[in-house]
Amino acid sequence: MKRTVVLLSVVAFVTAIPTGAVLKLPTAGIAYANPRSAAASKTPTRPVHTYSIVARDSLTGELGVAVQSHWFSVGPVVPWAKAGVGAVATQSLVEISYGPLGLELMQAGKTARQALDALLVADPNRDVRQVAMIDTEGRVAVHTGENCIAEAGHHAGNQYSVQANLMERSTVWGAMAKAYETTSGDLAERMLAALEAAQDEGGDIRGKQSAAIIIVKPGSSGRPYTDRLMDLRVEDHPTPVKELRRLVKVHRAYDYMNEGDEHMAIGDAASALIAYGQAAELLPDNIEVKFWAAITMMTNGRETEAMAYFQDVFEADEKWREVVKRLPPAGLLPEDEELIAKILSAGQ
Questions:
Q1: How far apart are CA 3 and CA 7, in angstroms?
Q2: Which of 6, 79, 132, 211 is the least buried, fewest Cβ under 10 Å from its Cβ?
Q3: What torsion do the CA atoms of 99, 131, 213, 151 make, to the nearest 10 degrees?
Q4: What confidence tier does 58 reach under pLDDT thresholds 50, 70, 90?
Q5: Which CATH class is domain 257-344?
Q6: Which letter does DSSP use for residue 55 in this model?
């Protein structure tokens, strides 16, 4: 698309400017159209009207984006984040390329403000865009175009920005800011609180449909698959923010499960039991969590507790008995026929 080509040329220009230098953005040859004109309307756009938050945790340095919209599958469109670089939310009549190009500029050493300004100056439809960026230093830049559909606005705070458009009331972003600032907990918890406050204040005037949250590490390890701490999406749901909170809870539980597995891999059964126990507390009805906690308990002298867990698991689904039989060859249970028989006797 023509506008994306122009934005890419600006990225190439800006990344060549030394960090710290005053940016003089190229404007010659760029035609700015009224976004309501016929010419502008020929440019395809996605009407992803929404509310979102970009933020940096001042204690951990983690960066994140959380969003809700009355639009199917908002996750691949609005939120962008990269460890050691920054985070972006691009919405309203959305130009998706603000996400990857904003990250590219910040990775090249530009501040959030420099990156956003560079892209806005090259966008003929910037008056219908709403974009927020935050860099690894917690510096925020946010733009709400004058032709974004009311109610539209934003609030930039200390290492965060909340923004919304097509809301039921103009108090939505203020409620988001207050919730984020007054909620305790980690970055995920505080961003969820901001989304919930937006919905409690009326949210998107059209309703609700999808939501997403991304959190990345403060620095890059060179392995992107380990740098993304959380990446959850609710594609289509009657209460997407509520469902997103549930998924975050499940995610936390499985983080504990993974931690338990890592402890078991190095023979630290005591630490594994603690981690599995924390997972079970979060998801007491989750059979998968109970099963692996029971396996660890059974092989570490806590037979009574383990057998109670195994009984719950087998009563829920008999197929887990077959899973037990397959564990000894994989080294996850001793090759001990008496032990295996005892486990399989649970609930019988």
A1: 6
A2: 6
A3: -150
A4: very high
A5: mainly alpha
A6: E
Kindly list the domain boundaries of the chain, sorted by start residue: 2-31+43-238, 257-344
Mean pLDDT of 216-240: 96
CA–CA dist 17, 109 (Å, integer): 10
pTM for the model: 0.86
pLDDT in tens, 142-178: 999 999 999 999 999 999 999 999 999 999 999 999 9
3-class SS of residue 18: coil
Token pair for 342: 């005892």
pLDDT digits (tens, 9 = 90+) for 238-260: 999 999 999 999 999 999 999 98
Report helix, strand or coil for 33.
Answer: coil
| Contact between residue 86 and residue 249 where contact means Cβ atoms under 8 Å apart | no
Q: Are 114 and 23 in contact (CB under 8 A)?
A: yes
2-31+43-238, CATH topology level: Glutamine Phosphoribosylpyrophosphate, subunit 1, domain 1 (3.60.20)
Task: With cut-offs at 50, 70 and 90, classify the pLDDT of residue 13.
Answer: low
In the block, residue with structure tokens 């959030």: 112
In the numeric block, which tokens belong to residue 235?
């594609």
The angle formed by the CA atoms of residues 276, 59 and 241, to the nearest 5 degrees, is: 65
Please tell me the distance from the alpha carbon of residue 215 to that of residue 228, in angstroms, as a whole number.
6
322 cis-preceded (ω within 30 degrees of 0):
no
DSSP labels, 153-218: EEEEETTEEEEE-SBSSTTHHHHHHHHHHH--S-HHHHHHHHHHHHHHTT-BTT---EEEEEEE-S
Residues 180/202, Cβ–Cβ less than 8 Å:
no
Q: Cα separation of 328 and 173, whole Å? A: 55
d(C-alpha 177, C-alpha 191), whole Å: 10
